[in-house]
Design goal:
single chain; 607 residues; two-stranded antiparallel ribbon; 28 helices; 8 strands; 4% strand
């Protein structure tokens, strides 16, 4: 539908007005006629941008014209925002009314239409084009948001939405995102204010506040999901995870949930989904260093209490109740990395402690046990419970061998097995480095510069504390070597199973656990990730041959096979897949004969 002559004239007049420089002197108590015209013309342009009758081709033309003129518009808008908002509250009723209209129109001027037809490669979020034209836009949005947060202004929801839209848009342009957040103090100050708002307002049932909180939970999710790696540590910090853990505990508490009104309860479902996703992506980035403190803060127990809110969503009363996946599925997904991280005693111990509490007081898990067997959360919890108990037994078996572990490279007792549980000395500062007698600890500190490692561990990765201890590392090696021996013993059985499956030309539900040895990326904290067979077979260029002598030097039995050729092993994985087996790469060898050996600790089930 063509644009009317009157609208075209108003739009042309608006662009002519914004070519005139703003006044050099502005009195916030008495807005001038020029400033009033600026607001009226900004209203004209924002209405034109929101015209629902425009086709996508017309929208592109309107956006192109608006983007070309935006630097001129921006001069007026930024000047008014500075005088009426950033420099403090206007002293008169007239000035306050002008400020409130300005906030609404500023929001409308940077957040507008989406294309209805599939976007082309040249289409980008409109506000992204504006930020590229005027790099000062995002910092000013952030400054206005800060000011409204301090004043608890009624237009805060508008600025939350403006911030949400601009953060989402600039994440599509990594260079722009980095430039926006390159100020050292900007991200920590922003996250501190965001956390403060969550702590202060989570109990509120006011509709506007509930909407602001939704943005407050969405923004950390965007950061955890799409932030460039070099900046992610600025946003997903220990303090942020602690805040979200507190919110998670509050929202899943049955007493708190039942006291919330229908509207607040609906929003609570969505908040929890955002928090679950943030935890999931944080775990992918920080690994067990993020998971361990969440478990210590009662994550598992909070999940068990979420039955009321799960039932609320499944009854169709929650906000976006029909959306997929459900809250129960997202909560189940929180268990995905746990099995992989059970080699860390700081992950395993809180899980075992929760299981002990449930054994003493079965009512803690009564709601979950009453769920149908098909409930994804119930299935995930049952698997995790069983696997945690199995790993605990293996850990006890490993510790009963009494392996002497000592970080002092000069220690002559290292590697000796005493046959009984050995009591270790632990560095009280980093709590990751293990020694046998105290004199080894003093020697390592004085001669081998343990201070440097201690400081690295205490600082952590992105302010999240390093979790892997020397005992955990030795347990991983023991665990992987144990399964390597089992794998060698069962090689012929696996081959016979493959032949039988091929002969029957069918499939089987049998899961074949494959042990393999390959290099993994060097990181401060090992990347203990699940490796699919597809990923494995595309990484054969990184594989290495391990000779019997090298394997024996790492603690293998004398009767090991001559050579393990991983290129051939990758081919076996493909053969097993074709035969219908579910294949899981169960352990990965890292390092050469004289280097430190680290193993991926696998989780032998899928949720």
């Amino acid at each position: 539908m063509p644009v009317s002559a009157r609208t075209a004239a108003l739009v042309a007049g608006a662009y002519r007005h914004f070519r005139i420089p703003p006044p050099s002197f502005i009195d916030p108590s008495c807005p001038s006629s020029h400033l009033e015209r600026s607001l009226r013309y900004l209203d004209v342009l924002s209405n034109h941008l929101r015209d629902a009758t425009l086709t996508d081709s017309q929208k592109r033309a309107v956006l192109a014209e608006y983007t070309r003129n935006w630097p001129l518009i921006w001069v007026h808008v930024s000047t008014m925002l500075t005088h009426f908002i950033l420099e403090g509250k206007p002293p008169t009723t007239e000035g306050i009314a002008f400020r409130d209209r300005l906030l609404q129109l500023f929001h409308d001027a940077i957040t507008f239409f989406r294309f209805t037809e599939p976007a082309t490669q040249r289409d980008k979020p409109p506000c992204l084009a504006l930020m590229e034209e005027t790099p000062e836009l995002f910092p000013l949005i952030l400054s206005v948001w800060h000011q409204l947060m301090d004043e608890d202004h009624s237009s805060l929801s508008l600025m939350f939405r403006s911030l949400d839209v601009t953060v989402t848009a600039c994440l599509l342009d990594k260079a722009l995102f980095i430039r926006n957040w390159e100020c050292v103090d900007l991200a920590p100050n922003f996250m501190w204010r965001l956390r403060s708002y969550i702590y202060k307002q989570l109990r509120s049932q006011d509709q506007i506040t509930l909407l602001c909180l939704e943005y407050a939970f969405r923004i950390p999710l965007f950061f955890s999901q799409d932030s460039p790696t070099q900046l992610l540590h600025l946003f997903i910090t220990r303090e942020t995870l602690t805040c979200l853990s507190w919110a998670f505990k509050f929202l899943t508490n049955p007493h708190n949930f039942l006291r919330r009104g229908r509207l607040a309860a609906g929003f609570s479902v969505q908040y929890l989904k955002y928090i679950c996703l943030t935890f999931y992506y944080s775990s992918k980035y920080h690994g067990p260093s993020a998971t361990a403190p969440l478990l210590r803060q009662g994550l598992l127990r909070s999940v068990l209490q979420a039955v009321e809110i799960i039932a609320y969503e499944e009854a169709g009363s929650g906000k976006d109740a029909r959306a997929s996946p459900t809250l129960a599925q997202w909560l189940a997904n929180l268990f995905l990395p746990l099995g992989t991280y059970f080699c860390y005693h700081r992950v395993l111990d809180p899980v075992l402690q929760t299981l002990k509490e449930i054994a003493r007081d079965p009512s803690l898990a009564q709601g979950l046990h009453s769920q149908p067997e098909s409930c994804p959360l119930k299935k995930a919890f049952d698997k995790i419970s069983t696997y945690a108990s199995e790993i605990k037994e293996l850990r006890d078996e490993f510790e009963s061998e009494g392996l002497i572990i000592c970080a002092n490279p000069e220690c002559t007792q290292r590697g000796i097995r005493t046959g009984c549980k050995f009591r270790y000395q632990q560095c009280s500062r980093c709590q990751a480095t293990i020694y046998c007698p105290r004199r080894c600890q003093r020697r390592d500190w004085q001669v081998n510069n343990h201070r440097k490692k201690c400081e690295e561990v205490c600082q952590g990765i992105g302010l999240v504390k390093y979790t892997l201890t020397d005992v955990d590392l030795q347990f991983m090696e023991w665990f992987a070597l144990r399964h390597i021996r089992l794998h060698w013993d069962s090689e012929l059985m696996i081959q016979r199973s493959l032949q039988q499956a091929r002969q029957e030309n069918g499939t089987t539900d049998t899961s074949v656990l494959i042990v393999d040895y390959c290099r993994s990326d060097d990181t401060l904290d090992c990347a203990f990730i699940s490796v699919t067979a597809e990923e494995y077979t595309t990484r054969t260029d990184n594989l290495m041959k391990v000779s019997c002598r090298e394997l024996r030097d790492q603690g293998h039995p004398e009767d090991c096979p001559c050579t393990v050729d991983n290129m051939a092993h990758a081919s076996k994985v493909k053969d097993m897949q074709r035969a219908g087996f579910e294949v899981v790469v169960h352990a990965m060898f890292r390092g050469g004969r004289n280097s430190r050996v680290e193993f991926v600790f696998p989780c032998p089930f899928k949720l």
